Amino acid sequence: MDYRSPSFFHSTVSTARHKWLSRLALFATLLAFCVILKGAYTRLVDAGLGCPDWPGCYGFLSVPNESHEIALAEARFPDAPVEVHKGWPEMIHRYMASTLGLAILALAWISWRSPPSPSLPRKHALALVGLVVLQGLFGMWTVTLKLWPQVVTAHLLGGMMTLALLSLLVMRLKTSRQLVSLDVLSQTRRLRLWTFAAVVALVIQIFLGGWVTSNYAALACPDFPTCQTQWWPEMDFKTGFNFFQEVGPNYLGGLMHNEARVAIHMAHRMGAVCVTLLIVVSLWKLWGLSELLKIRQGLVLAGLLLLLQIGLGLTNVLALLPLPVAVAHNGVAALLLLSLVWLNYRLFTLKGTQS
Predict the structure, then answer these.
(1) What is the mean pLDDT of residues 304-314?
(2) Could you read off the pLDDT of 221-233 as tens digits, one per residue?
């Protein structure tokens, strides 16, 4: 090989960029997971409006701490007294999210600066840029619209989608298509529907979880398996799932009446049962081919995450929403989503070959 040739030079540069892209995508994925945890913590300690403006905090780049800063901040926002212990969780979340946005922009820049290649998914990186810009807008609207439940839920869902797309990018950069026999490929094609349906169902369940937390319905049912000592309590689904709530009021603490919150909570419970059954069936159907497809450990991990998530959900109810458990419930939901995304990626990227 001629090490002085232009082709060798371009090949070396492309390989180096691919490695940097892979490392940066992995870093961004881990950071996105941390941002989700921090966002959950911020919501749960009622710090979503810890800073009443955006992107700063009371007009400052950080939370005002000094007495003269606090006096100026309260003069600027007389209806929002400074609460430093709530301002910092909100601002740290913004700092982390901004760093994630910069990492995603760097991913797109590196991928588009590189020569076109199937191993460098440019459109994937560009889609992430669009999603993170939308997430930034949701973050702004969360504050300016005073925790309007529709925006808060969309912000949570957008965070999960950002994490899923980043993890998928890591998979595309680090793994190649697995070769299997045409017979095995035919069998897996019949199973793809199950695993894809499991992901869709989990996303819907995550949306329901976001709707629960944004409407403060997590403690609407403080007992299990009953709700307020009844198997089928009085519920107002029409109000509970009114997605056209008025814009303007401060939604901190929630504005819905008891029957509406119970309806939201019970919908999340029923959704959990459906998602659990669908995931269990999907994992069971894949088990027979798991050794051949080299996904057995992934199936076991998904099953363990599902059991852990169920346990965390029950603990949230019976222990009245302890903060560490509630944050972990968000985190494990994200990990369960990633495990199902990985299984789908493995199934949908299989390549048949003659045995």
Answers:
(1) 98
(2) 999 999 999 999 9
Give pTM, 2 decimals: 0.92
Residue 122 CB partners (closer than 8 Å, separation 6+): 108, 111, 112, 116
What distances in angstroms separate CA 227 from CA 162, 231, 261, 322, 325, one per listed residue?
A: 34, 6, 11, 19, 20
Residue 90 annotated among the catalytic residues of the structure: yes
Q: Which amino acid is at 43?
A: R
Residue among 195, 217, 218 nearest 289 (CA): 195
Which H, E and C letters describe the chain, residue by residue?
CCCCCHHHHHHHHHHHHHHHHHHHHHHHHHHHHHHHHHHHHHHHCCCCCCCCCCCCECCECCCCCCHHHHHHHHHHCCCCCCCHHHHHHHHHHHHHHHHHHHHHHHHHHHHHHCCCCCCCCHHHHHHHHHHHHHHHHHHHHHHHCCCCHHHHHHHHHHHHHHHHHHHHHHHHHHCCCCEEEHHHHHHHHHHHHHHHHHHHHHHHHHHHHHHHHHCCCCCCCCCCCCECCECCCCCCHHHHCCCCCCCCCCCCCCCCCHHHHHHHHHHHHHHHHHHHHHHHHHHHHHHCCHHHHCCHHHHHHHHHHHHHHHHHHHHHHHCCCCHHHHHHHHHHHHHHHHHHHHHHHHHHCCEEECC
Options 74, 90, 234, 259, the catalytic residue? 90
CA 65 and chain centroid, separation:
32
Distance CA 281, CA 127 (A): 32
One-letter amino acid of 177: R
Peptide bond into 55 cis (omega under 30): yes
pLDDT of 328-352, one tens digit each?
Answer: 999 999 999 999 999 999 999 888 7
Written as six digits, the tokens of 213 are: 């937390």
Q: Are 252 and 232 in contact (CB under 8 A)?
A: no
